[in-house]
Structures are given as structure tokens and as C-alpha cells.
Amino acid sequence: MGLNLRERFHLALPIIRLGAVDKKLAMQIAPNGDRALPVKDHRWPRDKNAPVHNPDEHPVFIKEISRRHILSTGAAGLAAATTFNSLQIATASTYPDAPLMVVATIDGANYEHRENLGKDLGDFVSEIGGFTQGCVRSVVPGSPLTVFFRPDRTSNRVEVVFELGRLFAPATSANLGAYSVVISRGNRLLATVNVPAHYWFARWRWQSAPRPIVGNVATLMSQNLLPPYALSASVLSLPPAPKYTPYVIMGLAGVTPYMPQTGERPDIGLLTEPQAQYICTHDKLALDILRAQAEAAGTMPWHMRDENTNAPVNFEQYPAACWYQDQKTGKPFVAIPKSPITIDATHQPALSYFPYLLTGDPYHLEDLQFQATWNYGSQSLSYRPTLSQTRQFAWNMRTLGQCARITPMTVPSWLLGQSYWATLLKAHRLFFQSNYVNNASAIQSVFRATDNLAARPADGKFPAGTWCEPWQSEFLAAVLGWLVSMGHTEWRTSFDWVIGGTMARTSVGSGWVRAQSTPYEMMLRANATSPIVQTWAEAWRLNQDIGGLIYRDPNSWVPSDLTYLVYTRAALVYAEKLGVILTDNLSWANGQINSRRWKTPYKWRLGTGLT
């Protein structure tokens, strides 16, 4: 069966304007939802007085093109429009032999990029998708853009990728204001695209058709490439349905633009909420959202590509490359101008891994590699690898472990190979084992904490330098459990070490009362200069006396919010999956969550036992 209009659009490109469709209908196509975020104080300096893009005043449309040359992708919301249904749709497959060409108009100047004059970077062979895709890089003097022509060798599908940002020879590290591109093949027009803004180290693409879904969820789960979600569990209390926000160029499709924003967000976890919902329910809307957000990964200013090798920055080749903006040191040091997007390693979504498994699309694999590259390069040169926060290390290892697991052994020059990622992952494992697993301090050896107590400020009843955050350790336990199960078995020692703290806090007889198994803060000493307590029983008394932890029934979860217990349960699911001997830890957590009829998000519905 062919893709319906919504399926053809949800990856699409910007909003389409059709030759015979009036502006009023076009406005219905492009409701005021997720727009490209405006560039406020940084733009390409050619036209310093150019007005800032306002998406509410100037909706993003593809320019009017002839009825015979409409883009191959449709638009959500046009399915019922008879005007659209009567149009003849031209696709790239109509003219597969002529070279691709792009004319970019930036501040009144035209820059012509030709596929036949570019540099061939080699083909990507997708074993998942069953296709081979070429890649030709084109740069022209005076233009800030790098254009990648990517025609399929095994079909007539084509795509064109537009990137902004260079590491070694940037005339100006600046965001780019509005511009337009005309994409053609031979004498046939494919698309005219108005781009509202383009952030430094961000990218977007035009594609003649979205990749089809070929990955099978059950198969991926049986290979442990996905967490063990409950595919057929009886669900009595479902989370609210997600909201669909279409992707537009430099838009985010519902992803949080300010990543440091705290709280239980739908885009943070082992997977995002729409991804997990699709896995659990095969919901079509969830699929639309996860694919739109996969395109939105291009908006993130984390695409540090080495223009000499054409791959993401290789830290074996450039060990001192750095974009840690507070110190401005590195060889090279990469300046990043401000944009509406703030990336943060401690609250980072997984946007690209699952979409790659579903489609085999190397655009998503690239984004995964760019994300892992950004994480390492954003750390201070003096502390690499580092663990600044437990959750930062957890999400970084999630992304790095995914790169090492699914990157093919042989890749073209515009990607980094599997062995590179495996080496970087090993460096982080040795760092973790040396500094935490093998650390004799009671902070590590008893309580399995990775927090730097000395850096903790005073917070309410908790004095400065005394406390850790055990709920973040549950993220790390779940991530490491997933790494072990997907094939990184050398992480088993580290997983066993982390899960030991979770088991002690959820067991009867450890000395800690599991009614408060996952507090937000847990004291390990009375003040910043006093010794660390040595047992879980001592830790409980300290937190009861000074921190004010209370309970009535030692087996009944105290807080009204069960979010942290949900995190704990996920860690325990991996303990059970990996054969750790449990007593009633997991069944107790299941019972507490079920008795409160807690609406556990799909992304945390691992294993069985939840109603």
C-alpha cells in the first residue's frame, strides 16, 4: 500500500503552497503550531538590518510552483482538499538521470551548487532499509552553506541536506537569517523552499519521499535493541495522549528548546514518550510525532562536522577539540553563537536512535553520532571523560552505547565507524570503574553514589556538602542494564555496582526503610566536615533525624508522587532481566504503583506487572 498524505508529510519539509490553492487554505495547512524559532541577536552578517523572522507574521511556505511540479510529499490537513487531489504530482523518480542542482539565494546573492561538480564522499549501504545512498558534498565560494546531494543508488529517491557551520575556517560563526533555495534535477523543478532561519551547526533536508518503516518492534526487542517494554500489558490508567506538532525547518516538533528545563518531561528517558507509546501500542499518531521529532534533531546546534574529513569530529585525531564555552580553550576551540536552542547533556532526549532502527535512514544515524560527539566536546578539556551529574553520565552513555552498537563496521567517509565508538565507550567504562566501582569510600562502596557531595549546596534541611540524589542513580542503572543487554557485556560489573544501591533501598532488612526508597535527597553525613556514615541503617537514622523522612508503614510508599518510584522500578526490571537475585523488590514496586493507579508514562513501562 502507498503512504497516505499524512504519512507522506509528517517527515516533510516545510509547509507546501500549491499553485491553485489560495492563501486562506494555505493558512489552514500551516496552523500556528510549531514554527521555526526566530533568530534574535545573531544572524549571517551580510544583511545586518534584515528583519528578524516572525513565524506568526510570516508563515513558512514553499514558494508557489506549477501544478505539474508539486513536491512529492503531501501535507497533513490536505487529504480532504479536492483541489489537491486533482493535481498531478511530479517526483524525482520522473527524471532520475540528470544531476541535482541547488540555487541558494542569501541576502540577494545567488549561490549555485551542482551535484556533478561536488565531491563524492562515498555510499552508505543500509542493511536495515535495503538501499544504497550516495553522498556528494558541495561548497561554493562566498556561501555559508554546505550542501549534500544524496541520491539513492538503488531507487529514484533523492534528498538534499543543508548544513550551516564550519570548524576550521568559519569567516563568521553566526546564525543565518531567512533565505530561499531552488532544488532541481536537469530542467525539472523539484522544490522552492523558503527557509525562515538557520542556526549555526544546525541542518535540515529536503527529501523526495520519506523512508518507509521497515523495522519490526518485536524483532528489535528480541535483539535487546529496545528496552523490554510491555507490548501486551493490561493498561488500566493510560498517560494522556501526546500532542502532534508538525516539523518545520528550524522547528522542534514539540521537543523542549531549553534542555536544562527540569522535571519529568516526555522527551527525556531511555526513549521519548512518543517512541515508547508507538512501541507499546503501534499508535499512528505516536509514529507521526517520533518521526517529526527525528527531523527536528537537525535543528539542534550539535552538528560539528570536520570539513576536512566530512565526518563528525574525531577525538582520536583532534583530542583537544572543544566547545566548552566557559573556558574557550581547545585545538580547535569551536565557538557557538547563541540561538533559541540550549543543549544540555543532563536533560538530553533520544531523538534519532529508534527512527534509525525503524528506517535504516543514515540521516538519523548521523544525528546520533553528532549528538554523541557534541556530548564529549562540550566537556572541559581538564575533565574528559567526566561525570558532572549522574543523569548526565546516564544519558551520555545511552547515546554513546547506541552509537557503538548500531553503527556499521564499514561506513563512508561522512560517518565514523563502529570501532571508533567502541573505543570511546571503553574509555568511559574504564573511567567509571576506576573512579566509582573500585572506590573504597563508603559513598561508593556502600551507597553506590556517584555524586560529588562537596559540591552540594545547602538545600532546606540538608546542609551543604552532605547529600546525594539517589533517583538519578536509577537512570544510570536502567541505562547500564540496557547497554549490557544490547551486547556491551563488559559493562556488567558497573551495572551490578549501581543496582546494588537500588536493591538496598527497596529491600527489607538492609537498614533503609523502603517506604522512602527513592528520596529526592539522601544525606550521607551530618555536615560537610563530619565523617560519612558506614551503613544503610545509619543513613536512615540521619535522614530521619535531620532530613525529616517519615513513614507509617515501612512497606507503604510515602510520597503522593510516584515518579521516582517509577524510575526505581525501571532499574529493578533490568536487574531481573539480567538475572540479579531479587527478593520482592520488583513485586513490591509494582504493587505500590498499581495500588495508587499511577499513570506511568509509556517510556517507563518496562517489563510486566503494571496494570
In words, what does this structure look like?
With 611 residues, the chain is α+β, with helices and mostly antiparallel strands. Among the domains are: 5-207, no CATH class; 439-611, no CATH class. The protein contains 16 helices and 13 strands. Strands 3-6-7-8-11 form a 5-stranded antiparallel beta sheet, with no helix packed on it. Helix 9 (390-406) packs antiparallel against helix 10. The protein is globular and about 80 Å long. The model is unreliable at 1-95 (pLDDT under 50).
Which helices and strands, and how do they pair?
Blueprint (H helix, E strand, L loop, with lengths): L4 H5 L13 H7 L52 H4 L14 E7 L2 E6 L4 E2 L3 E3 L4 E3 L2 E3 L6 E7 L6 E7 L14 E7 L2 E8 L7 E5 L9 H6 L50 H9 L2 H13 L56 H7 L2 H16 L12 H17 L11 H20 L4 H4 L21 E2 L1 H17 L5 H14 L16 E2 L12 H10 L17 H15 L7 H11 L16
Structural class: alpha+beta
Oligomer designation: single chain
DSSP strand count: 13
Please summarize the sheet with the most strands. Answer: 5 strands, antiparallel
Low-confidence stretches: 1-95
**Average pLDDT, to the nearest integer?**
86
What string, H for helix and E for strand, traces the elements in order?
HHHEEEEEEEEEEEHHHHHHHHEHHEHHH
Q: Count the DSSP helices.
A: 16
The level of helicity is 25-40%
Q: Percent of residues in beta strands?
A: 5-15%
Rg from alpha-carbon coordinates: 25 Å
**What strand line-up does the widest sheet have?**
3-6-7-8-11
How far the N terminus sits from the C terminus, by CA atoms, comes to 36 Å
- Overall morphology: globular
